[in-house]
Design goal:
4 domains; 8-stranded mixed β-sheet; single chain; Penicillin-binding protein 2a (Domain 2); alpha+beta; elongated; 6-stranded antiparallel β-sheet; Beta-lactamase; 22 helices
C-alpha cells in the first residue's frame, strides 16, 4: 500500500509545474522583449562594459650605429584630453571648486599659456554642444602638442586629473615617438616618421619599416567591479633593432668638414660619402643644403638621389676602359696643343688654355693635370667609329650598375647606349657626344655610384655594394647578419689595369691637381672634378653654377676607406681640388687620427704642464682620463655613467690635482654650459628640449639662452665657441 495519498500529492505537483511553466514563459518572454524591443539599449550598455579586439601597439625597434650607439629610438609621448561628460555631478562639483588651481598648475607646466587662457579654453570645451545635442565635449584637447612622460606625470598630479579617467574625464592618447639622441646627425639617411601617423617617412626608417615596426597585439576590455581590465588575446611583438654601418664620430667629422667649407666658399650644397673599402660599409654620408636663413641642414638625400654630370672624376673611368681594352698604355702620348682643340665643330679647352696649355703629354700626366683635350682625343680617336664599344667598356667597369639601394629616392646612373635606325643612322648620338661624355658630360651619375666605382679601384677591382645595415637584433642578440655583397662577381678590369690606375691616381695627388687632398702622414689617391651646371637657360645664358668633386681612397698603399666630396657653388672661383679636395683632406686625416691605437699614458709628457686644463662637462669621462694619466682628482660626486647617466660638472685645475664638482641639472631649467666642450654642451642642451646652433670651435664661451631660465621646448640656443 502506497505511503502517499495520490489525490492530495498529485495536485500539488501539478500546481508547482504550472507555476514553473508560467515563470519559464515569463523569462522567455522577457528575453524575447530584451532581444527585440530593448535590443539597442542593452547593446549600448554592453558596449560600455566591454570592447573586443582592441589593437595594442608594439614598440618600434631602435636604429643603432656601427658601435651600438642609439641613433633613433622610440619613447612614449602623450596628447591629453578631457571628457566633460564623464564623472557626473561628483566630477562637476570638484571641477567648480578646483578649476582655478587646475589652470594655475597647467600654466606652471606650460608657461607659454596663462592660467586665464587655460580656463577660457577648458570652459569652452565644457559648454561645447555636440551634434547629438549633448553638452560637454568628450575629447577636448587640454594642450595641442605632444608631451613627454615626465610632463604627463606632472599633469596627472593636478587636482581632479589624478582620479580615474572614468570619474575625472582626464584621458590621454599614447604615441611611440622617435627621438634621435645625436640630433640631426645623418638625419636623411636614418630617416624620419610621420608624427601624426607614427608611420615611416624616409631613409632607413622606411627601408626597414617591416622589421622595425613589429606586430600589433589584441586585447579585450571588460568592466569588472566598476574598473576596466585588459584581457590579452594576442601579445604585441616589439620591432627588431637594426645595426647600421654609420660611425657616429666619422659622421660628425664629415658633417663639420663639409659645413665649414661651404661657409667659407658660400656654397649651396655639400655631399660627402665615406665608404669602407673591403666591405662597402657606409661609415658616413652627408647631405647639406643652404636654407633660407643661411644655415646648412639635411633636406634631401642628394648623395643617392642626385643625377648629375660628374665632371672630371669621370675621366678615370674613360682612361680605365682604354687601358683595359689595350688601345693605349702608360707610354701613350697626346698632343694637347696650346690648350684649345677643335672637336667636330666645337672647341675643347683645358683649364689652363689662357696660359698656353700642356703641349705633348703622357697618359698618366693627362689625369694628373685633368686634361680635357687629352682624354677626349684618346676616346674619340680609339672609339669614334664604334662608340658602343666605349659604352660597353663603361658598363663593364660597373659605374653604370644599378646598386639596388634600400634608400627611398635612389636613382640609378644613366649612361646612354648609341643606337642606329634600320638605315644605319644614329638616332640618339652626335659626333660631339663621345668626346664630351668622356670628360664627364652627357651622363647622369649620383655620387654614391661614383664613390662605389672608386672603391672598386681601391679594392683591386672588386666592386662592393654600399651597405647601410649590417645586422638585425632582438633583445641584444643578433637575429640576422646582412653580409657584404658584391655588385658583380667579375672584377671591373684586369688586375694589371687596376694596379696601373691605382698608381696614376696616387700621382694625381702627389704631383698633380689633387695636392690639397693629400696628407704628410699617409698616401692618398684620387681624382679632382669641376663641372659646369646649366640652370635657368643653359650654360651661356643662365646662371653658371659649378659641381666640384674629389673622389679617392686612403691610405693609397693599403686602402681602407674611399671617400667622395661634392660641393655646389655659384660662380668663380671654383676648383674641385682646391675646395672639395680640402674637405677630403680633413675627413681623411680625422679618420686616420681616430684609428691610432696609442696608450693614454703616452699623452703624459713630463716636459709639459703636469696638470692639464680640463673642460667642463661629463666629469666621469674626465676622471677616467686623469686617473690613467696618474693625476689626482678631488671627487665631489657620485654616480655611474655605465648606467647611461652622464655626470655633469665643473673641472678646476689646482696645483697638484684637478677638482671635479658635480653640477645639478634640473628638468626644464637651462643649464650653464660655459667652458664645456661642444659635444657635451649640445647633448645636454638638446636633452632639455633646446635647439642648438654652434659658432666657432673649442670651449663654450657664451650661450644665448640664459642659464637658470625656464626652458621653452623648441627654443633656440646659440653657443659661441673659442
Amino acid at each position: 500500500m502506497s505511503k502517499f495519498e495520490n489525490d492530495k500529492v498529485i495536485p500539488r505537483y501539478m500546481a508547482i509545474a504550472v507555476v514553473l511553466t508560467i515563470i519559464g514563459l515569463a523569462v522567455i518572454g522577457k528575453a524575447f522583449y530584451i532581444m527585440t524591443a530593448k535590443k539597442q539599449y542593452w547593446t549600448e550598455v554592453a558596449d560600455r562594459l566591454k570592447k573586443d579586439s582592441v589593437s595594442v601597439k608594439p614598440k618600434r625597434g631602435n636604429i643603432l650605429s656601427s658601435d651600438g650607439q642609439l641613433m633613433a629610438s622610440s619613447i612614449p609621448e602623450y596628447k591629453i584630453y578631457m571628457d566633460f561628460q564623464a564623472g557626473g555631478k561628483e566630477k562637476d562639483s570638484i571641477w567648480e571648486e578646483k578649476i582655478d588651481s587646475i589652470c594655475m598648475g597647467l600654466h606652471e607646466i606650460f608657461p607659454q599659456q596663462s592660467a586665464e587662457e587655460f580656463k577660457k579654453h577648458l570652459e569652452e570645451g565644457r559648454k561645447h554642444v555636440n551634434k547629438n545635442g549633448s553638452v560637454g565635449a568628450k575629447h577636448w584637447p587640454i594642450w595641442p602638442h605632444r608631451i613627454d612622460y615626465n610632463t604627463y606625470t606632472e599633469v596627472k598630479q593636478l587636482p581632479l586629473f589624478r582620479m580615474s579617467k572614468y570619474k575625472s574625464g582626464f584621458h590621454e592618447e599614447e604615441y611611440n615617438a622617435r627621438r634621435r639622441p645625436f640630433g640631426s646627425l645623418a638625419v636623411r639617411t636614418i630617416g624620419s616618421m610621420f608624427g601624426a601617423k607614427d608611420s615611416a617617412r624616409q631613409g632607413l626608417e622606411l627601408a626597414y619599416d617591416s622589421v622595425l615596426r613589429g606586430t600589433p597585439g589584441l586585447t579585450n576590455r571588460r568592466k569588472i567591479l566598476n574598473k576596466y581590465m585588459n584581457i590579452p588575446v594576442t601579445l604585441p611583438i616589439d620591432g627588431y633593432d637594426i645595426v647600421t654601418t654609420i660611425d657616429v664620430n666619422m659622421q660628425d667629422l664629415a658633417e663639420r668638414a663639409v659645413i665649414d667649407e661651404l661657409k667659407l666658399i658660400g656654397g649651396d650644397l655639400g655631399v660627402a660619402i665615406l665608404m669602407e673599402v673591403k666591405t662597402g660599409d657606409i661609415k658616413a654620408i652627408v647631405n647639406m643644403t643652404r636654407c633660407a636663413d643661411g644655415e646648412y641642414r639635411e633636406i634631401k638625400n642628394n648623395a643617392v638621389s642626385d643625377l648629375r654630370e660628374p665632371g672630371s672624376v669621370f675621366k678615370t673611368a674613360s682612361i680605365l676602359v682604354a687601358l683595359d681594352d689595350g688601345v693605349v698604355d702608360t707610354t701613350y702620348r697626346v698632343e694637347t696643343g696650346c690648350g684649345v682643340w677643335p672637336m667636330h665643330g666645337r672647341e675643347m679647352k683645358d683649364h689652363n688654355w689662357r696660359r698656353g696649355g700642356y703641349g705633348n703629354i703622357s697618359l698618366p700626366r693627362i689625369l694628373e693635370v685633368s686634361s680635357n683635350i687629352g682624354v677626349s682625343r684618346i676616346i674619340d680617336e680609339k672609339y669614334g667609329r664604334h662608340p658602343e664599344k666605349y659604352i660597353e667598356g663603361l658598363y663593364r667597369t660597373g659605374i653604370a650598375a644599378d646598386l639596388k639601394l634600400p634608400i627611398k629616392g635612389y636613382a640609378r646612373p644613366h649612361i646612354r647606349m648609341p643606337q642606329k635606325d634600320k638605315y644605319g643612322h644614329w638616332t640618339n648620338w652626335s659626333m660631339t657626344a663621345l668626346p664630351w661624355m668622356s670628360i664627364g658630360y652627357e651622363t647622369q651619375i649620383p655620387p654614391i655610384s661614383t664613390v662605389t666605382f672608386y672603391n672598386a679601384i681601391a679594392n683591386d677591382g672588386i666592386m662592393m655594394r654600399p651597405r647601410f645595415v649590417k645586422s638585425i637584433m632582438k633583445d641584444g642578440k643578433v637575429i640576422a647578419e646582412i653580409p657584404p655583397e658584391k655588385v658583380m662577381e667579375r672584377r671591373i678590369a684586369k688586375p694589371q689595369t687596376i694596379k696601373t690606375m691605382q698608381t696614376i691616381l696616387e700621382h694625381v695627388v702627389s704631383q698633380g691637381l689633387g695636392r690639397k687632398a693629400g696628407s704628410r702622414m699617409f698616401k692618398v689617391a684620387g681624382k679632382t672634378g669641376t663641372a659646369q651646371i646649366a640652370e635657368g637657360g643653359g650654360y651661356k645664358t643662365g646662371v653658371v653654377k659649378y659641381w666640384l668633386s674629389f673622389a679617392g681612397f686612403f691610405p693609397a698603399d693599403n686602402p681602407r676607406y674611399t671617400c667622395i666630396v661634392c660641393l655646389k657653388k655659384t660662380g668663380l672661383p671654383a676648383s674641385g681640388g682646391g675646395m672639395s679636395g680640402v674637405v677630403f683632406h680633413h675627413i681623411a686625416e680625422g679618420v686616420m687620427a681616430r684609428n691610432l691605437r696609442l696608450s693614454v699614458k703616452d699623452a703624459h709628457d713630463t716636459a709639459s704642464i703636469s696638470i692639464p686644463d680640463v673642460k667642463d662637462g661629463n666629469i666621469f669621462d674626465a676622471n677616467y682620463v686623469l686617473r690613467h694619466l696618474g693625476i689626482k682628482t678631488n671627487q665631489e660626486w657620485s654616480g655611474s655613467y655605465a648606467k647611461g647617466n652622464p655626470i655633469w660638472g665643473k673641472a678646476e685645475r689646482q696645483n697638484t690635482q684637478v677638482a671635479l664638482r658635480k653640477m645639478e641639472v634640473n628638468k626644464n631649467i637651462a643649464p650653464d654650459v660655459t667652458d664645456m666642450g661642444a659635444k657635451d654642451a649640445v647633448f645636454l642642451l638638446e636633452s632639455q628640449g633646446l635647439k642648438v646652433k654652434l659658432h666657432g670651435r673649442g670651449k663654450v664661451k657664451k650661450q644665448s639662452y640664459p642659464a637658470g631660465k625656464q626652458v621653452v621646448k623648441g627654443s633656440e640656443c646659440i653657443l659661441i665657441l673659442e
